[in-house]
Amino acid sequence: MKIELLSTFIEVSQTLHVRIAADNLYLTQAAVSSRIKQLEDELGVLLFDRSQKRLKLTAEGYKLVKHANEMLMMWQKVKQDVGIAQGSSHQLFVGAMMSIWDIVLQEWLQKIHRNLDDVHLFTHTFSPLELRKQLLTRLIDIAFLFEPPHVEDIVAEKVASVPLQLVSTDAEASLDTIENMVMVDYGESVNSQFMRDFGDNTAIRHNMSQPRIALNFIMEATGCAYLPKQMCFQHVRKKKLYLVENAPEYHRDIYAIYLNKSDKTSLIKDALMLFPFIRG
Q1: Which Pfam families match (predicted)?
Q2: pLDDT per residue over 70-84, tens digit each?
């Protein structure tokens, strides 16, 4: 099976549109359709339901998405190991939860680009369970999550402690007058603190898994939420959001994990030193 067939399938599975996928891949629509048909013939299944105006993944297509991503990542690792990777002498495969990308990793990637100019970055987003699996199978070199696993072969280092502030779109909001509270899932430790402090006294209007989603929501619909200080700093400064006075402040620790016998330990440590928390 050719790698370009899988990469084309992934692009179509994300766009669900042959023309858009063709534009993104700099191919003709006929070439994209041909690759998908070839892949379906090799597997002996239909990957897309073409009965409607918009493509839909079949059950088999959904199954292939996960395997295709892993195979493409493995191919990048193979290129690295046999020395045919182009344009860089070092590659670093980074995985993280979606919310952690939003909170601290965007700036970190920029620092790597500026300070470690011989490093070629590959970034991926996974659930905490998948991050551990991808790390142990060496498909990624370093992962970022809120609660590190206690596994003998894995090194965990705290890279950030993120302040979470209660902010509101209402300049007059107080703890006694909170309305439209959006609760963001920051993990069990923060969630339990929140429930102890607020309990039944505050009606939760919505529950959301990502701080970025909660921020965009309250900016549009009005309301309040606990958000990372880094994420809402500019909005507070421009008086689009307001700190709720006397509200408890929480912290969400973020950890980097990597294999203790990784052949990239030196590179990983150099990259982690770009976090202010690590430098002290």
Answers
A1: HTH_1, LysR_substrate
A2: 787 777 766 666 654
